[in-house]
Amino acid sequence: MGWERIRGHDANVAKLQSAFSRSRLAHAYLFVGPDGIGKKLFAEELTKALLCEHPPAALVACDRCPSCLHVMARTHPDVIMAAKPDDKLELPIDIVRGFCMQLGLKPSRGSRKVAILEDADCFNDESANCFLKTLEEPPAGSVLILLASSTEQQLPTILSRVQVLRFQPLTVPDLERVLTLHDLGDGMKIARLARICGGSVGVALSLADADLGDFRMVLLKAMSQNRPDSPALAEKWLRFTEEAGKDGAAQRGRTSAVIRMLVSQLQAALRLAFGSTADDLDTEERASLGLLAQNAGADGLVAMLEACVEADRLIDRRVQLALILEQLADKLCPARSASTSPRAIS
Ligand SMILES: [Zn+2]
């Protein structure tokens, strides 16, 4: 399989292969891009290619040698992986210290070690300082890969010592190809997921997985009430988020998925507010959205859209989900006085 299993990131593969052929591989990379677009999968494929004992081409894994098999089984002694625990908001010092210590030990199978650190957005001062020492004097031949959603939150001291590789959201055709490999249902469902997941396989899987259709209507009904109950909405949404399991990334993915779904609904409501017939919506959805458009008015809908964008930004910054949803629910359920509600939308 090799790089063929990686979709949508050919330019980054070419960049690394070219650097490798010229012996110009950096000792530390920062992979930057939204959650769920395949950065970790890419890092694992790179690891396999770097450690392969019989590479068929430059920086390509054979997928058959003992080293490749160990990487695939995540049992390779020279591969170090670490991530932020789900119940923590920051990368704790003990995890970073252990990660750096293991990287400092001699390789046991080949000539190099590869280390992948997820959640590189989440260093605190203490763990960043500890990590900087390793970054300043990395063990010979080792390759460090940091995964992060943005460069915004990186310390300049870290940024200046890594090579940044940017990863873009996948295109709809690439998404459709990747989603076809998962057992998600028929082609129409896959096409719809690919359209609304914002380029993230993670979000698409979470959309497919969750009973999002039902929750979408719960959300719409709560918002289109005359007296929307914001705390109740926040609580329902948080509960739905937590059903994704204990994994923080899965919870963030599900929350983002709902927000993306909501954005497309608010856009449809806005079209209704401006007199479109919105024939692409089903009857129940059109009725709820019509009511929402009537109650909130075009300005209100735009404010809600802005609140969704802000919430998505806070999710990227790993702000606590309960906090984000409380704030968002407040914006989605503005108090309406009797004199202004319902508002004219013509
Ligand atoms: Zn191999």
What does this structure look like?
This protein is of the alpha/beta class and 346 residues long. Helix 4 runs parallel beside helix 5, helix 7 crosses helix 8 and helix 9 crosses helix 12. The N and C termini lie far apart (57 Å). It is elongated, with a radius of gyration of 23 Å. Strands 2-3-4-1-5 form a 5-stranded parallel β-sheet, sandwiched between helices. The C terminus is likely disordered. 54% of the residues lie in helices and 7% in strands. It folds into 2 domains: 165 residues, P-loop containing nucleotide triphosphate hydrolases (Rossmann fold, 3-Layer(aba) Sandwich); 123 residues. Zinc ion (ZN) binds next to helix 3.
